[in-house]
Fold:
Amino acid sequence: MTYYTKIKELTKTVPATLVDFELPRDPARTPTQASSNFITNKEQGDWAENLVFRAINDTSKNFVAVKYGKSDDLVAGEDGFDAFYQEFQDELDTIGKRPDILIFRKEDFINDWGG
Structure:
């Protein structure tokens, strides 16, 4: 079963009174500037993600962390942000939010991906 199919099946169990997944998502407006609060939170999130990534890869004998989600450093107001933001919105509509890090058993990753 694919990730998309599994998520689609799971969403069928959520009552429509809580979230109606059949309703189209309201299009998001592209932000025009990033606030200092946003930039600070983004930096803290990036730091925490990197910390987990390094902690697993530097210390684990059994697991490997692989970066997976979007990792662009663009923020609102920078060149290219509009296109980046729209691509991200299209991805959300198609497959949903991807996790930023995937964790595999090391032996599976090496055997399946040549890691």
In short: Residues 33-113 form one domain.
